[in-house]
Amino acid sequence: MSADALQAAFPALAEALPRISFSALPTPLDAAPALGAALGIGSLAIKRDDLTSPLYGGNKVRKLEYLLAHALASGCDAVVTYGSVGSNHALATAIFATRLGLGCHAVLLDQALTPYVAATLRHHLRVGTRLHPARSFNDSGNVAAAIGAAHPRGAQGVYEIPWGGSNWRGAAGFVAAGLELAGQLGAGATPDYLYVAGGTMGTAIGLTLGLRVAGLETRIVAPRVVPYGQGAAAHVEALLVETNRELTARDPRFPVIDEPMRNLELRGGFLGAGYAAVTPEAREALTLMHDVGGVTLETTYTGKAFAALIADARAGRLADKRVVFWNTYSSAPRPADLAEVDVAALPPAFRGYLQPAAS
């Protein structure tokens, strides 16, 4: 079982912080000179976290390595997590949990119909996820409580994984990712900016902490892809500080950083009409990345994050800068037999999503 960059740098964490290795690390850091030239960027590279696993890639894998290890260490035999109907996080959780012999419950909210939702639901059915509709964010907690109450071993047998896997333990996977990136950079090649989608923020928080611990002052730009509440910045800072505190408690060699939000920028302006709502800027971003960069994005997270990078490049902010775009979307192929999956077990609340959506 291979160590990640966090365990390699702080060996005491390998014992104090359980982790199961699912991923092929390090993921590539690919130079993108043609794409950078098309946008007038000094230097552009793409961190290929779409390649974290050939089974199902994307950014959730790094978080789940820590979260599912803790579920097993806690003696649980099932997990429950949350997301929208098309959530990559919920699907990734189900895929990797079931491989460990854990049952998986996914509590899902409605979302805009995108081209990927039907395939995601079929994939859930294929791996045996137990799907539960919820009326709202607040209702999702009630649904999860009912799942725990109905579990044969009671609630103590069901491990709760938060939205997006974004608690301090999940963020630790991206502290490791920040250290991993630092180790891939040549002398004098520190990025000025790193763009990554700002969803539940565990990814951006972990990267911020990991890069600071590595001694890099790269500015993390996290364009908003979910409708944050008014206290978003305070919540993000609190989770960043908590992650730092918990890692230091388990290995005193892990440093405490000052001014935790100094190099983390929460960016608005690219969400559009709401979560999963497709924007013209995201569509353009997908086309440009695919045609010039040779990488596939999607419209809910990575397309909006790359749209922010494009806007900043066109405004001249990145003309003489080193920039990294962190691709959080899975490029692993879907199973070939999804169209043949029996959908009879799909809850009625989700059946409307099996209709095709415009791409």
Please sum up the structure shown.
With 359 residues, the chain is α/β, with parallel strands linked by helices.
Observed structural traits:
Rossmann fold, 359 residues, alpha/beta, 2 domains, six-stranded mixed beta sheet, single chain, 40% helix
Helix count?
12
Mean pLDDT across the residues is: 96
Strand order of the largest sheet: 1-2-10-7-8-9
The portion of residues assigned to helices is 25-40%
Number of strands: 10
Regarding CATH, which class of the largest domain?
Answer: Alpha Beta
What portion of the residues fall into strands of 2 or more residues? 5-15%
CATH topology of the largest domain: Rossmann fold
General description of the model:
This protein has 359 residues and is of the alpha/beta class. The chain has 2 domains: 5-58 and 168-327, Rossmann fold (3-Layer(aba) Sandwich), CATH 3.40.50; 60-165, Rossmann fold (3-Layer(aba) Sandwich), CATH 3.40.50.1100. 40% of the residues lie in helices and 13% in strands. It contains 12 helices and 10 strands. It has helices at residues 5-9, 12-16, 33-39, 60-73, 88-99, 117-127, 137-150, 168-184, 202-213, 232-250, 280-293, 302-314, and strands at 29-31, 43-48, 78-84, 103-109, 130-133, 158-160, 193-195, 219-223, 264-267, 322-327. Strands 1-2-10-7-8-9 form a 6-stranded mixed beta sheet, sandwiched between helices. Strand 3 (78-84), helix 5 and strand 4 (103-109) form a beta-alpha-beta unit. The termini are far apart.
